[in-house]
Structures are given as structure tokens and as C-alpha cells.
Amino acid sequence: MSVPAVELVGITKRFGGVLANDGVDLAVERGEVHAVVGENGAGKSTLMSILYGLHRPDAGHVLRSGARMRLRSPADAIAHGLGMVHQRFRLFPGLSVAENVVIGAEPMRRGMLDRAAARRSVADLAERYGLGVDPGARVGDLPVGTRQRVEILKALYRRAEVLILDEPTAVLTPGEAAGLFRMVRELAGEGVSVLLVTHKLNEVLAAGDRVTVLRGGRVTGRFSTAGTSADELVRAMIGRSLAAAPPTVTEPSAVTEPSTVTEPSTVAKAAGAEVTGVEATATPVPVPGGVAVGMPADPYRLEVRDLHVRDRDGVTTVAGVSFGVRPGEIVGIAGVAGSGQRDLVDAVTGLRRPHSGTVLLDGRPVTGSRERRVAYVPGDRAGRATAPELSLADNLLMGDQHGFLLDPGGVRRRATSLVERFSIRAASVRVPIAQLSGGNAQKAVLARELSRDTPVLVVEEPTQGVDVGAQEQIHALLAAARDGGRAVLLLSSELSELRVLADRVLVMFEGRVTAALPVAQATDERLGAAMTGAAMTGAAMTGAATTSAATTSASTTGAATTGATVDVRGQAGESAG
Ligand SMILES: Nc1ncnc2c1ncn2[C@@H]1O[C@H](COP(=O)(O)OP(=O)(O)OP(=O)(O)O)[C@@H](O)[C@H]1O
């Protein structure tokens, strides 16, 4: 047998009382795609960080082509031919692809950056590995999938022969993910070894050669992907099959208050805001107690009317979007990154003031804080959802502090109960949330927001970075929130997730809704076509008409104009609509 390209031997790493890696052995052959899987907190990131020189192990060592490496920092790892592509890219948006790739290792000519040489070598590399990147393009103008290739090019430019990819498809569309894996296979064919950390077992089985499974810091399985099923991997990961023991879930906070408004606004109807062809097919959702919610006749809990949002540079990112979400309904939003869905969510949650248009909760336009009526799980967990230096307990309470100000015992009790209910793994509720594994921090945010007693729930990428067992649990919780009568707006780049959870799926492209489909009609083909603007599907026809109809209506109908402008200027909007 050949000498492995890299070999981790007996790696042990503790963080205080937490044993993150416990005598881990892992060998990666030259030209092999080796997946590392395991539930949240299993120790995958810690192991990769040790390999990349970001953490020092307490015991064990790392061999490169059979020779022991000294890894004091990433610079040592890079010098030994290792490269890592993190989930959060480290690129300068204002610089070109070539400048980003060579930065820190620039070709110089008479003391100056040799731009021509930089472009040439980046173009050569891109060509050699079939990366399809224009070296002269400005990184800020590139889609996410292409930015990721720039990160990979950066590593290859530094002569990486072992590439660590940390959940590389978390930010990619299905098409981009397929492109990435074609490229990964190409790289492997050229002799590059790829370490792939992911929660997506279909990717592991499709793109990997071998798999190492971690659980509680130890290796619990080694597989060749040939002849291995996803279920075998799951059992090694979580100790059971997924179907064997579905989690029992109780709705954390059923919303019982009745809606205050009984009719969707006539203005909205006149403007075509109700996407009729699709609404009529909405299936009633039975709930315990025999009451059906989500009936076509139910008024909207959340309604968006002819919303326009502009970014800081004045560019329109949401261009006339209208839809409603009824109690007991999950409306999914799909779209390639940058299609306006993030700004739409910002406007719905009150984080961004729309340029025009209205957001209504239970029929009333909202202007100020939505904190107490809209629970929100942001996609950008580290940036928006948590205060990293605060404890897990404090983070579990954020937004709900008032009741607990004088009751530290209450804070701890509530936190402990959420930790149990959501199976959050942490040494204690007192540790800073930054010390939790990515998936466990994500579960904490979901626990906090799902347990808040709000009629509307807005969730972005709920299962990004969480393990398969937790994915199942989170899906069950979202379904329970829906069945308890909440209106749920779900943004997800996982089409399969939208299909499992949503009652209807809206697709956004260039700031508009290009498809509005009941879930039964939301095939990959239809969604894919709408995501690239190639087709207008189902009620999107109406949706497109909605834009112009609403504009006309807004300019000719006094009530509509009032509704829109009152909301935008932040004046008392309660009487409008
Ligand atoms: N800097 C740190 N300080 C304290 N504890 C840490 C630190 N980094 C990781 N841990 C702990 O080590 C354990 C392993 O975490 P790690 O991030 O390696 O897991 P993971 O398998 O990558 O999880 P995920 O899939 O959620 O990203 C967890 O219990 C985590 O809380």
C-alpha cells in the first residue's frame, strides 16, 4: 500500500472538560476524496482545525507523505501543501479574481505586483482544473459558487495537494453543488486529496471514495462508499436508523389567539395580490382538536403587498412582490443566492425599511418593531442570531429578557429545559455560545425562536450545518409550529426541504416571484427553471401581472396609495388597509 498523503495518528484534543477528539486515526490517500461525517459536536471541525494548524492537539501527530509535520499555524500547513476552504469565504469583494488568488503570494516584478503574471497563472490553473473562472472579474460581482472556486484556486495556487472543504455545499444551489463535485473529482484525478466535511450523506456517497464517521470525538466507522448505504452511515453517526425512531415532538408554543381581521384586503385582491390559481388548491391542514387551519378562506396572518426594496446603492433588490401566509401554513421561498429573498425577509422582519409596499400582520400594516410578533431564525447565525461572547443561557433568552431580569434562576431553568428539549450539546448553559459546535449553536437559535409565542415565524436555512438526526427533529418542530396555527415563511436552498415542509413554494429571481406552486407541483425541473428566470410557472403569471396591476392600482386607488406610503414613511399605519 502506498504512503498516505496525510495521516492523523492518535489525535486527542480537550477544550476544558470537553473531549472533542479522542484518539482519532485517519489516513487519506493521494487522489482520494475522503468524507468526514458525524453528528453535531462529534469533533469534525476540531480535527480539521488540527490538520490545518489552527489548533494544537493534546496528543497525537500528523504525517505528510509519511513524514511528521510541525503544525504551529496555518502557514505551516500551507507550506506542507495543505489548503482549506472555510464556510465563510475570505475574499476581498473589490479586488479581481487574480488579485484575490495571489494575495500574500504575489508574483513581483521590480518590486511591484506583476498583474499580467498573476492573471496568466490564475488562468492556467483555472484551465487545468476546469474551474471556469475569469481572472479579471471583480469578486464582488460573482455568484457564490464562483467565489468558492476562487477560494479553491487560492489553495491550488499555493500548491495545495490536500484540500479540506468544510461543508462546501452549504451555500450553493443544487446546480453549483453538482459543478463543485465534478471539479472535486477532476482534482482527485490530478492527484489532489480532498477531505470533505459535510452533513449531506447523498453527497458523501456520490462524490466520496471513503468515509470516516466520528461520534463523541471517536471514530465509530470507516467505510468505502462503494456498496455502503446512507442508513449504514446514519447508524454509525447517531447509533440508530432514522426511520426506526422518529423523534416525538410537541409544539413548543401553540398560538391560540384568534386573528383580529377577517378579510384579506380588497385592495390586495384588486391588485391581484392573492395568487388565486394556487390558493384555491391549498389543502386544509388538520390539527388536533378537529379544527382545520390553512383553509383558503382564512385571512392572512402575514401578508406582503407590492413590496419594493432597494439596497444601499439604490439598486432595486425586491421588485413588487406580493403574497400571503395563512395560519397553519408554511410558504417556502426558493431562489439562487442574490435573487432578493434575503432583502424580502429583512423587510418582513422589520430589519430593513422597504422603499414602497406594505407588510401586514393579521391584516394591519406594521411599521415599527416586529420583535414580539415575528420570530426569526436568520441564515447568518454567527452574525445576526447570536451574541458569541454571551453564554448559551443568555443567547437562549435573547429578545425575551424582560421577564427574567430579576430572576437568574429562571434564566437557567428555562435554558436547561430548552437544551434538553432540543438536544443541544454543550458542557453547560454557562459556556459562551461561541464554544458550541456550529450545529449546536444553530439548534440553540431554533430553540429560542420556536419557543417564542409569536403568530409568525420566519426561518432561513433551518437545517444548514445540522446533523441528520437533528434535521429530522427540526423538520418535525417546524411542522408542529405550522400545525399549531402559526404562519411560517421558510427560506431554504434545499429544494428537498421545501418539498417536505412547505404547502406552497414561491421562487424568486431578480427580485420578482417567477413561480408560485403548490408543493405537489414543485418539481425540481419547474423550480430550477423558475430559479434561473427561464420560466414563469403557475400563479407566477398572476404574480408578474400582480406587479403591474399593483402599481397601477397604487397610483389610481387612494386607499392603496395611502396604505403604501403610510407604511414606508413609518407614520401611524394602523388605519390604512
Ligand atoms: N474553542 C472551543 N472551546 C470550547 N469547546 C469547543 C471549542 N471548539 C469546539 N468545542 C467543543 O468541542 C466539541 C466538538 O466540536 P466540533 O466543532 O469539532 O464538532 P463538529 O463535529 O464540527 O460539529 P458541527 O457539525 O456542529 O459543526 C463540541 O462539544 C464543542 O462544543
TrEMBL record:
Molecular-function GO terms, alphabetical: ATP binding
Domain of life, source organism: Bacteria
Keywords tagged on the record: ATP-binding, Nucleotide-binding
Cited InterPro entries: AAA+_ATPase, ABC_carbohydrate_import_ATPase, ABC_transporter-like_ATP-bd, ABC_transporter-like_CS, P-loop_NTPase
Residue span, ABC transporter domain: 6-241, 302-535
The keyword Nucleotide-binding belongs to this UniProt entry's keyword annotation: yes
Name of the featured protein: Guanosine ABC transporter ATP-binding protein NupO
Organism: Nonomuraea monospora
